[in-house]
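Obj.: predict assembly geometry.
Materials: sequence records (below).
Method: joint structure prediction, all chains together.
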Amino acid sequence: MADVTFTVDGKKLTAPAGTLLIDACRKAGIEIPAFCYYPGLSLQAACRMCVVRQEKVPKLQTACTTQVAEGQVFITESPEIAEARKGTIELLLGNHPLDCPVCDAGGECELQDMTFKYGAGESLYAEAKQHREEQQWSPAVFYDRPRCILCYRCTRMCGEGMDVWALGVQSRGVRSVITPNGGDRLDCEQCGMCIDVCPVGALTSGSYRYKTRPWEMKHVSTVCTHCADGCRVTLGVRQIDGDAVIIRSDNRDKGGINGDFLCAKGRFGFDFVESRERLSTPMVRNAAGKLEPATWAQALAAAASKLKEIRETRGGASIGVIGSNRTTNEENYLLQKFARTVLHTNNIDHARSTDYAAFARALAGHKDKTASLRDIAAAPAILLVGGNPTEEHPLLAWILRTNVRLNKARLYIANSQSIKLERQAKAVQGLPPNGYKDLTSILDRNDSDFAKAVMAEESLVVIFGSDFRGQGVEDLVAWGLKRGPNPDSVRFAIVGDHSNSRGAADMGLFPDLLPGYVPVTEPGAFAEYPGLPAAPGKTLPEMFAAAGKGDLGALLVVGANPVGKQGMDAAALKNTFVVVQDLFLTETAALADAVFPAASLYEKAGTVTSTYGDLQLVKKAADRAGVKPDFEILVRLAEEMGADVKALVPFGKGGVSADLGQSRGAQAGEADRHAVWLAAQGLEPRLSPLDPLAVLDEIERLVPGYTLDRINLLSGNDVRTELGAAQGRSASSSDGAGLIVPAHDSLFTSATLGRYSFALKDLERHQTQAVTESAAD
Amino acid sequence: MSSETMSIFSPRLAARFDALVAKYPVKRSALVPMLLYAQDEIGYLSDAVIAEVAERIGITELDVRNVATYYSMLRFKPAGKYNIQVCTNISCMLRGGYDILDRFQKELGVGHKGITSDGVFSLEEVECIGACCWAPAIQVNYDFHDELKPELVPGILEGYRAKAGFPGDGSTSLGRKAEGKAPHA
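Observations (raw structure tokens):
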């Protein structure tokens, strides 16, 4: 709409006509207080805090519902307005308990802040406060009725935002309370968004309540480790017995791609970090065949000497390496570089949850055809093929719902089952199971309403997941690329399962592909890698087959559980020397000859790439005695094997090098923080071989598609990456379609991590109960 | 839903509901009248009533409860067969409404929101029932009794108690109106 000019507190402001005054003011740096107003949700105009004086209008107006027009004059702070707001607060405090000293929200409470600002410290209300007992609605959500100020943010967030509609308001006047759909229990997706938007301490989190005060935590903004969507989480960390322990996980900083959103896993599923079953000391198998605790030096020496021996006696081809879907890009890159240049093997693979390699192959030679999550959030039309984002990719579901609700985007769904997002869809096309290959012909025939609507779209984002593999991906992409010359005519997003599945693929954890999907057979590729084997190596099942035949001397497994998760035969590893780096003693780790306790994603620094190609900085939040990041374990292993660490991690320039850097204590991560600062200043030296950013430099230099917007990345934003092969190379890969095993994690499961999260198990139990109860009715 | 086979309401009311949900541009506009008619027939808004109304309108039970709990005249527990509502708002109060209420309490042995042990009467103190000109007034189900004096109370109770003895006496308002009786006593 056309811009209009109006005056606020004597300042001339300009905004499109029809903008809400409160938004226009906030954009111009004029803060107008509000409890009920929440950006992106419907207007409630219930709290009367945002009242302002508008010239020539007899009564104070609510800024949250006033649309700006040409020539209006407003005053947002005056004794009259302060008096009105003070009166509102006084009424709110009429029944609000003054239990701030023990309230979870104390210190980050909007009512407290407003009372402080407008000074309604005294009450004229002498009657006894109406007290009611607190209620527990689910393992995650508690409701303290008298603290509630009835702003309706939670009901709107739950309904409009989450499309769950589990919260309502019942009774009236002073008796009004928020009520969950199950009477006294909450039957919902347990996302905890209601807790996040609550301006006071009425809704509190089961995992955080009464644990600490907000100001006693250090708040670290990092990336969630659970699914591939790449939500930013804020971890509240406190020093307890020398460890930095995560006390809370929420979405306090709201600066990520996820905006307001965070799901149950991101919010409550961090407790695996503190699981009693976490490994905290290296272990080595003794002469009696039992795993027993060892020092780092002993375990590193044992693993390194054996790996070296096998490499020298049986050759690199007899060593296998299995990488992880949840370690950082730097760790994945380092792992494949370690495998290829130190172990001299191309036998490297990971548990593939979707076919990124085929996607890269299909898009080879086409630039700017992938859709980042921000592209999806702004897309006018989206074709979602297969999958169930509400369960498996909660952020994608949120982005799609929000785009439909706020921008009137058109969502088209083709699926073999009925999914919840159909409620937002403009048209739905049912497909038989395994019928996805027919989708393009259905669309090309253009004889159904669905096909006609999709074909009429000028600009389309196509989102698909593991239902498409190999040739299927190539056919779908080829169909899309025919859609015309408009650069925005089509973009694609492929949906994988784990927090860095995309990074694992992009960083070349493939037997036949180098980082950036460059074939190992391509002449001159990664020429600077010393001793890079030229022939493709073995895939994960092939490694186990070789082990079964006695042809695999050693297997290095980093953050993966092929025996427990991919159903590989444990007996095959009988005569193989197995080294495992992991958080827990998984089925695979239990078979190992040397086990190293690894740090989780919340305990290290680096970067991860979401399944949409958005690269984000991971920051170290927690700190735990005994564990080391996989990055450090690999560097130390390489050093112990006598490899040239400087060739592996390009640290130190012109002979400058520092010590290995402290991994624990007050100075933990110092080298990393220093490097972040240096880089932000345009300065260079990476002083430590344990500095992941030194490897990020090399990734940016060597990996096609990873040209990064550094300043944006280092200031905490998500930056776009491209699929390597899309940069004009012609990628080729053996058909890996048969190797894809989707995880199908639900809202409360998260592969291996979920097995060690009490909070998620508790929520799952609560929801299963809710389902059986309503089924019995 | 097929109101013939599944409904907890009488066929007549079920048919009325079928018409009602089709009457408004938005289905949920029918919610409040449906709740009132359902309460008249069933006596209160039971869980089953709420579930069926929600299903007929296509909203959640939570939505129905959000609306229903707002209105003080909608009940979630059974009332007596005759629900006596005594007005103590200003006109009635000035003309002795509280004396009437006291007398009812004494006669019935129950207080505000109380229900007699035989289930025949329940008592409520209510705000204005729109009979100020004939204050003090009470409303028994949908019948009005006005210009009352405390000594008239036993007679009123006697009348209803006698009626309660007869089965099928049309004690609910719908039945009453169908019989065409005058609203005033």
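Conclusions so far: Residues 167-185 of chain B have pLDDT under 50 and may be disordered.
To do: check interface contacts against the pulldown list.
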